[in-house]
User: Fold this.
Amino acid sequence: MKEHKHKNVFKQGAIPSEFIGESIAKHQTKTSIGAHNIFLGQVRADVIDGKTITAIEYTAYEDMANAKFHDIRETAFEKFNLTCMHIYHSLGTVKAGEICLFVFVSSPRRKEVFKALEYIVERIKADVPVFGKEIFEDDTHQWKVNN
Assistant:
């Protein structure tokens, strides 16, 4: 039995605003779409124990994570009336203020994109094996707790 290769959602480093803009522009020809909704996850410069986070280094069990992203995608298409959906997640180092997660959903109707986007982002946070190492200004680090 041949193993199915899932779409790779990972991008090395931060997700650039140009990539996000191009993704939106590509959908202007799809005239059955009436609504888009976008979630952009950004690295925060949180202060923990008096030290400021300067970046997060993301790692993942890529094959397993891509399979989970695929499952989330399939379930979202079953639950919501979506025209299309795109998910991209960073690997490697992403500095504070940069984008690390880009989720983009489209539908004929606005209410569907609101419900779908919340569902997708919550499932990603709960189910996908992506790990972040918080890097502090003094070059110390700790594993990030998802919340």
Observations:
- The helical segments are 17-26, 62-79, 110-127.
- The beta strands are 10-12, 35-42, 47-48, 51-60, 84-95, 99-107, 130-136, 141-143.
